[in-house]
Amino acid sequence: MTELREKIDNQLDKLSSxxxxxxxxxxxxxEVENYSDLTSFxxxxxxxxxxxxxxxxxxxxxxxxxxxxxxxxxxxxxxxxSKF
Length: 84
What we know:
elongated, mainly alpha, 51% helix
């Protein structure tokens, strides 16, 4: 345990103030005892197994906005190749 703490102290000494702020935010987040306070996902009912794709269509909608082509181009430019 002492070696780990020394390693972490050495790493912290080398970080910029911006990165120290990120570390501090992370530590704050893992200190939270009740994770349900961090998200509102607990209010969404789970998708039950055995559902068909047609059951999900009620959540589908048409594209709204004028940036569809821009979004498609962004996806084409930034997606990575699949590895199997």
